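Weekly sync, protein design subgroup
Attendees: M.S., D.O., the rotation student, P.L. (late)

Item 1: inverse folding check
M.S. brought a backbone from last month's batch and wanted to see whether the design step gives back something sensible before we order anything. D.O. pointed out we never logged the input encoding, so this time it goes straight into the notes. Structure tokens as presented (380 positions):
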């Protein structure tokens, strides 16, 4: 298996002529068919276009009913997804599950909460300016991860909430190339809430086959005072058992920062670059938002982590400081998304998370009308 063609960091190849064709799936062309766009006569925009008729934004979005799964795309034959744009209200970012199936596989290669896949795991918008993922105001989410397939692709969204959800999306893909030597794109989500005592958080485990690990996103909720990022990330590769081949030196080091992400006088400082960043810092507000929360990504685009037999485990420690300059193991809320390419369309993966396991506890409460009695909390 050869490495899939990741997006070029420059424009050197854009002028090359290739015998490829571009297709695009959206609510205005559900199957991406040639000449099939803008033909809708009914849809979520029909009322707005009642004076204009067909071709005038009659079907720009879809409504996914509570508890249902919607097929975003169902593609036959070989191809490669090159871009996904999608948006919905922020209340839905952790209640929607994004899945992708390659070549007719029964098990999804991608199963990740919608917001986490686009580096917005906390349901609060953060601008992301990276090569693989771009999150733009206000909730315009973009993926440029190449997703090749040989005989077919199916992308779905499951609405795990109790309310209907409106989603706008466009999935662009190419056909006509040779994808027989490309790896399949995988993404897996795991959450420790809270992390077990003296146990690292597992990012990935039990992966068999040849491939390359290409990215990590973590939504990290801190459950204590003090610094939280001394923990090391470890990649157990191929025949590794008790000790890893790759061992990092600290959480902020792995995500490209240093010294607590702290610019003196400014404190934690957000940053977003093509390959790594901490685009989100959620600070306590003195009322309901009581703890610090962070969003961090690391894309191994120029430095993929290659393996030939598998990845037995990838994990990360949660460490702070205690008295006497001793490490303090922490029990934080850590939700990670691992991204990798593999020589097969399915892999060992965790159980599908329940709605309760997905839920974000930012502590926000409904704001009462002026003059109304404030709502009581369950503990009151």
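Designed sequence read out in the meeting:
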């Amino acid at each position: 298996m050869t490495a899939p063609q990741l997006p070029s960091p420059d424009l050197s190849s854009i002028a090359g002529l290739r015998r490829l064709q571009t297709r695009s799936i959206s609510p205005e062309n559900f199957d991406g068919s040639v000449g099939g766009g803008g033909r809708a006569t009914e849809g979520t925009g029909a009322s707005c276009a009642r004076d204009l008729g067909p071709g005038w934004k009659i079907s720009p979005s879809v409504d996914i009913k509570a508890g249902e799964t919607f097929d975003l795309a169902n593609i036959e034959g070989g191809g490669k997804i090159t871009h996904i744009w999608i948006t919905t209200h922020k209340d839905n970012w952790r209640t929607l599950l994004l899945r992708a199936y390659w070549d007719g596989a029964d098990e999804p290669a991608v199963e990740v909460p919608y917001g986490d896949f686009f580096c917005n795991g906390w349901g609060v918008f953060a601008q992301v300016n990276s090569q693989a993922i771009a999150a733009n105001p206000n909730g315009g989410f973009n993926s440029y991860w190449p997703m090749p397939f040989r005989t077919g692709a199916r992308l779905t969204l499951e609405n795990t909430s109790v309310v209907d959800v409106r989603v706008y999306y466009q999935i662009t893909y190419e056909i006509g190339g040779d994808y027989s030597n490309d790896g399949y794109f995988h993404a897996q989500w795991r959450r420790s809430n809270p992390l077990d005592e003296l146990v690292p958080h597992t990012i990935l485990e039990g992966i068999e086959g040849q491939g390359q690990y290409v990215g990590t996103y973590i939504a990290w909720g801190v459950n204590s005072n003090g610094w939280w990022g001394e923990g090391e990330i470890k990649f157990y590769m191929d025949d590794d058992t008790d000790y890893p081949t790759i061992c990092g030196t600290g959480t902020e080091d792995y995500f490209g920062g240093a010294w607590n992400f702290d610019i003196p006088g400014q404190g934690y400082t957000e940053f977003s670059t093509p390959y790594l960043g901490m685009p989100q810092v959620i600070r306590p507000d003195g009322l309901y938002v009581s703890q610090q929360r962070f969003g961090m990504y690391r894309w191994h685009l120029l430095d993929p982590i290659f393996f030939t037999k598998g990845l037995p485990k990838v994990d990360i420690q949660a460490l702070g400081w205690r008295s006497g300059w001793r490490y303090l193991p922490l029990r934080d809320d850590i939700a990670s998304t691992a991204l990798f390419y593999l020589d097969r369309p399915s892999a060992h993966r965790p159980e599908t998370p329940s709605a309760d396991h997905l839920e974000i506890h930012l502590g926000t409460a409904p704001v009462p009308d002026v003059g109304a009695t404030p709502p009581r909390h369950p503990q009151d």
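Discussion: Residues 114-117 form the longest helix (4 residues). The longest strand covers residues 165-175.
Action: P.L. to compare against the previous round before Friday.
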